[in-house]
Amino acid sequence: MNTLVIKVGGAFMQADELALELLGVIKQLQQKLCVVLVHGGGPMVEELLAALNMTSHKIAGLRVTPADQMPLIAGALAGTANKQLCGLAIKADLNPVGLSLADGKMCLGSVLNPELGRVGSVVAGDPQLLKLLLSNEMLPIISSIGADSEGKLLNINADQAATVIAQLLNAELILLSDVPGVLDANKELLTKLDGEQIAELIDKGVIRDGMIVKVQAALTAAESLGRSVTIASWKSATKLLGFLHHEAVGTLISPAISPTSTTLPHSKKTKAD
Ligand SMILES: Nc1ncnc2c1ncn2[C@@H]1O[C@H](COP(=O)(O)OP(=O)(O)O)[C@@H](O)[C@H]1O
Ligand SMILES: CC(=O)N[C@@H](CCC(=O)OP(=O)(O)O)C(=O)O
Questions:
Q1: 30: domain CATH number?
Q2: CA-to-CA distance for 203 and 261, rounded, in angstroms?
Q3: Cα 136 to middle of ligand 2, angstroms
Q4: Residue 9 CB–ligand 2 contact under 6 Å
Q5: Nearest to 29 by CA among 137, 122, 101
Q6: Domain count, the chain
Q7: Which pLDDT tens digit goes with each residue over 94-105?
Q8: Closest-lying ligand to the alpha carbon of 234?
Q9: Is residue 47 part of a domain?
Q10: What ipTM does the predicted assembly reach?
Q11: Binding residues
Q12: pTM for the complete prediction?
């Protein structure tokens, strides 16, 4: 069976009804595909830090993560967000297994850039654990907390995490957010983009904030997997069933023409490269 990696942003877990609808669609997709869910949780991180009177900021879409905030961020992502999503999956009659990127050595992490603190990059490691779970019809639900070779925790952007999981399993990849896809300057959906068009839209300031990391992660995946990656909304779950019949949803990111335009800031090459 082919494998599909679906990534959902943090706002997803806070929209129970829509989340349950998407999880119902995942149950249907499981008839035809192996599905792995990767999740973010930016809003949960921010809520926890704010409750503790702590602040946080992002550089180029990546949250600067001082070492003393790492246990809290791991709690919000691998704890609150992961378990909340596993709970919703149980309600949707799925068989979830909550994991982080270090489990079963599925991904190997290292510090991305010391200026960002414990922010990490990961490369594909051992797929055995995920294959075992998928062959038993379980739904792996993976948070973007990883670890370095010394076992110290790392905070990985969840779009980048999903990209590496797709590389690990040679899977299709869909990145779901709270927007219908990548939008142009008039807020109209762009149905197809390649590396050159993306570079231009970033230059013009049309693609901003978290969407920059997302499109760059999608390009990295598209290039290394040699197939298009979808950016779409988790708010229109049933449209995703069209994916089974090769119907396009959201924005299709196709492999870049210019490989240099796809590199993430300071990112390392993955094994799949
Ligand atoms: N051109 C664009 N098209 C769509 N969304 C964009 C664009 N530029 C910036 N964004 C912003 O990017 C956000 C999605 O990125 P992010 O907040 O990181 O999502 P998630 O948490 O779902 O991963 C959108 O909610 C939107 O505010
Ligand atoms: C390094 C980095 O930026 N980590 C992200 C991980 C969670 C994430 O990516 O969540 P969303 O998908 O909801 O944005 C963070 O701390 O917010």
A1: 3.40.1160.10
A2: 12
A3: 29
A4: yes
A5: 137
A6: 1
A7: 999 999 999 999
A8: 1
A9: yes
A10: 0.98
A11: 41-42, 63, 155
A12: 0.93
